[in-house]
């Protein structure tokens, strides 16, 4: 083991702390402004929950929030199921494995604007009316890799002798899956589905293109509100979304760590 | 359940069919339709003339326009946006490296517990809403915000500094958005680095700067190149940052594509712009593949010498 002091290089600590500030100061500024009583939002007057009351009572925000939750829930369930099946098929080597895995990760590499436009053209060419359904279908596509990666990683680390033992004890493949594989995989399945949920909840570009008039989600609502100008209401709803994402991601991280320790 | 252990290939095909079908339906077929549309002329009402013959007009349009006498002349509008995108993405990549490398270096010198915490702290912004994070910069940089006001109070001779709706603001937003993609791959190569080599360099009288330049940096190159790819690709296709912080003046390819499907209603042109973007992306992926192959070769050679 190399002594830690050998790895220390001058200034890296200071630069790192500055970079952490760069990453977090904007988030805290936004949160702070959402509690500012003053409408002009440039001057701080006093602490207030007023804007949160306003947004909770705003019917178009309520509809957008409901749409976001519906889309994210359905897309997450479908994407996680598809990803789980795919991970079970790909963790043992086979001919074409690299191609399949590359395909699954494609949504992470392709620029979202291109995928979004292409998906819009698909719905147009098929004559499908844009609405909540088109948003859900489009979200399933890019949620799959986020659900797939943690499950796949967990399968890799899985103690294969447990599966063999179950086989030796005359469990059929379905019983092995139900009684051994799935319980061991469960933390990763949960962690992957939480990540898929967060990604779907936060998505803007894809939804912006494939949402119809009645199917606005929260990010799309926020975008059009930003275009109209900075308001304390946007600060409040943005803060709520940030907090939800952060809580969910920390939960996913914790689930992942727990899965590793088992 | 009729899952039999007799045919693993059939099992695998059954398990893979949902994901393959989804990928076909949501990526392959849509891209195919987009390719088809890019070869069709625009309809008078906006949209596409499905009955027309194939032509390359929408690709010609990217660089040329028809003059008054019907001859083609160079059209700089799209080329400019393309160049701006490439420069912005390149600059973002460079800045992310300059900021990200020291952070990755520092992280690798921490105790395992603190490393995990730092990984989480670097990852969290990535999982929060990109739109909202760019909006937060809009609040910080705007005209009557305290940053612009204090800068103008400090430098009154500059004659009113504006921080928003220019290339600077887009740059700040892009670096902010994609910095984690640079830090994490570099960190993961540094984590696996054999620090005994660095120790040997110190024993042989190298100072810290030499050890960094001759040992640490070359050995962390795979992480740096992977990070560069992960930052360059999304920066090039960025849409949200220029839309919010560029304010319609500093357009990038992503915004041009969106315009063709919004107000301009020129789907063939939007499709050909998308393929241009995909082309550049493919080129950088090929360069990356070539790099990693030659790097692997050097490593093997190093091992046998």
Automatic annotation (TrEMBL), chain A:
Recorded GO CC terms: plasma membrane
Domain ABC transmembrane type-1: 65-252
Transmembrane portions of the chain: 15-35, 69-91, 103-123, 130-151, 184-201, 208-230, 236-256
SUPFAM superfamilies listed in its UniProt record: MetI-like (SSF161098)
Region forming the signal peptide: none
Bilayer disposition of the protein: Multi-pass membrane protein
UniProt keyword terms in alphabetical order: Cell inner membrane, Cell membrane, Membrane, Transmembrane, Transmembrane helix, Transport
Family: Belongs to the binding-protein-dependent transport system permease family. CysTW subfamily.
Protein name from the UniProt record: Spermidine/putrescine transport system permease protein PotC
From TrEMBL, chain B:
Superkingdom per UniProt: Bacteria
GO biological process: transmembrane transport
Family of this protein: Belongs to the binding-protein-dependent transport system permease family. CysTW subfamily.
UniProt key word Lipid metabolism: no
Full protein name: Spermidine/putrescine transport system permease protein
One Pfam family hit: BPD_transp_1
Membrane topology: Multi-pass membrane protein
Gene3D superfamilies named in the record: MetI-like
Spans through the membrane: 12-37, 86-107, 119-140, 168-187, 223-247, 267-291
Domain ABC transmembrane type-1: 82-288
